[in-house]
Amino acid sequence: MPRLEATVGTETREDVVAGEFRISVTFRNAGSEPARLNLHQAAHPALVLDVRDRNDKEVLLPPPSAPDAADLEEGEIIPPGDSVSLDYVGFLDRSLEPGEYRVRYFGEFPALGGTKDDPLRSEWLTFSVRRPRGFEGAIPIPGFKPSPEDPRSERPRPPWPLVLDGIINWILNWWRRFWRWIVCLILRVLFRRSCETRSQEFDQARTETISNAPPGSEAWNGTYSWRARFLLTYDEPNCISRVLVRVRLVGTITTAQRTAWETAIEAAWNSRFKLCSDGCCCDNGLPIATDIQFVSSGEHQVVNVGTTTTNMGNWGASDTVDISHEFGHMLGALDEYFTVNGVNWGAGRQPTGAIMNNPANRPVARHYDTIRRAAAGLTGRSQTTVAQSASC
Amino acid sequence: MSLIAELEIQPVAANAAEQLRAVCSIANAGEDVEELNLSALSSPSLLLEIRTRGGDPVHLPPPPVPPASPSTAPLGPGEQQRAEFPGFFPSWMEPGEYEARCRYVSGSVVVHSPWVAFTLLEV
Are strands B13-14 and B116-120 parallel, antiparallel or unpaired? Predict the structure, then answer.
């Protein structure tokens, strides 16, 4: 008999930001016969995730997208002993009230692994939501009847005009800066706290499941895994964050080709964004400088040199476009074409697509998320990624 | 559909992942010309399925972004197309015994080769 088991996991369960909360559900066929599961349909959070607040009141999720052909198919076969995983990202509304919640997988239809009488359900995973910093709750639309399910209280609109609002925000902003300056001064004078340089090696497993590939590209459907590895140096005295990826090459490549790789990669990824935090150093943030270094030992990654680029570990000697996309994987970025971990990105190589969709284009802030999280872990402070030309 | 797949891995035991090379051959064993999806042959991530000897899947890194339209080529009766993947096995995998097979997927066509065993030796 096929017997599916579902397990919910997450990297962080304390003080998560609702709009960025990410879980993964692993489905394992613990039976002796192949089991079916429609991964495309199961990727819709609203269809399968059961979220409750501290009082066991159901937290409603946004409705799923209209079903497409893949939703109506029988689904993928999971052989006995095999397992597949789905990631669910950003399924909670950003304005969810802070507090404790729990979530579980709950599939009560055959396509989702269970039935009404015998639903496929995981254990509960408890997590806590914090108030996102710098996020203002939305202003209600006038004349719009609020949903009875909306747990947010009505926020009265202040009577003063927007200009006054702007002035007050400006004053508050400077007041906060002034206060932080005072705190930092105390830390420096009394506790001899100074700007430091911190370095750490990072090694993060990354997984993505691609689905919904169009006809002709069905081979792209599947689950992929790799490791994002780099040395992060958070250099406060010089206000820069350096990300070094050491690569050992296997195969034949000319010096000119290797230089072309380095130039293309650093032009794509280097000094486009910076890390901002509420620390006492680098008020204007630490620009992210990426560096690829070719080494003969002590590598983060091995790259086989060939005629074409076929994945993160196999690069074409003359390619200077797709390799920049593959370098993004080394930094922890996920693909952004077809449906990846339940997020529908559309076709690959769109003219306006960012680098993880169209390798000829530039990265965007989310592609530095693994670096941002690594920097947060290294410094013990939350970090945000903003464009290098913007202010923190 | 009369396509058949075969996989060869050399060497069958290696000291380092980068020494392993996979060659997947898709042959037309029928009497009609078949249309072969060359894009589906373009990456080890697309064409190879790997597992431990215990049956746990070993996932490869993602394939490159697909072309806007897949490239195809006719494969006549008796003809075959080879796809070679030196260093197909991820460098971060632990030493151990593994199995791999070719898995050609295009439209509703799915063709598997037999599983082939190989070993990453403890150095």
Answer: parallel
Q: What is the pLDDT of residues A252-266, one digit of tens each?
A: 999 999 999 999 999
Instruction: Tell me the pLDDT tens digit for each residue of A313-367.
Output: 999 999 999 999 999 999 999 999 999 999 999 999 999 999 999 999 999 999 9
Residue A190 in tokens? 């009394």
Strands A384-387 and A338-340: unpaired
DSSP-derived pairing of the beta strands A286-295 and A240-250: parallel
CA distance B43 to chain A (A): 5
Sign of CA dihedral A328, A330, A334, A337: positive
CB contact at 8 A, A92 and A215: no
Least confident segment among A42-56, A202-216, B83-97: A42-56
Answer whether B46 sits within 8 Å of A329, measured CB to CB: no
Mean pLDDT check: name the lowest of A14-23, A145-154, A338-347, B55-64: A145-154
What pLDDT score does A136 carry? 45
Interface predicted TM-score of the whole assembly (ipTM), two decimals: 0.95
Inter-CA distances, B109 with A164, A184, A352, B2, B106, Å: 66, 65, 33, 10, 5
- A143 versus A24: the higher-pLDDT residue is A24
Query: Residue A223: which of B56, B8, B118 has the closest Cα?
Result: B56
**Chain centroid offset of residue A218 CA:** 25
Are the Cβ atoms of A251 and B86 closer than 8 angstroms? yes
- From the list B37, B68, B107, the residue facing A349 with the nearest CB is B68
Considering only CB atoms, which chain B residues are within 8 Å of A295? Answer: none
Q: Do A314 and B85 touch (CB under 8 A)?
A: yes
pLDDT confidence tier of residue A138, bands split at 50, 70 and 90 = very low
Contact A313 B86 (CB under 8 A): no
- Give per-residue burial for A330-346: e unless 16+ CB within 10 Å, then b: bbbbbbbbbbbbbeebe
Q: Does B48 touch chain A (CB under 8 A)?
A: no
Distance CA A88, CA A227 (A): 20
Interface test with B, best of A218, A249, A300, A335 (most B CBs within 10 A): A218
Q: Is the per-residue pLDDT at A134 higher than 70?
A: no
The three-class DSSP label of residue B49 is: strand
Contact A316, A359 (CB under 8 A): no
Query: Shortest Cα distance from A183 to chain B (angstroms)?
Result: 45
User: Range with the lowest mean pLDDT among A120-134, A219-233, A310-324, B36-50?
Assistant: A120-134
Does the distance separating the beta carbons of A347 and B86 come in below 8 Å? no
Q: Which two tokens mark B4?
A: 């058949």
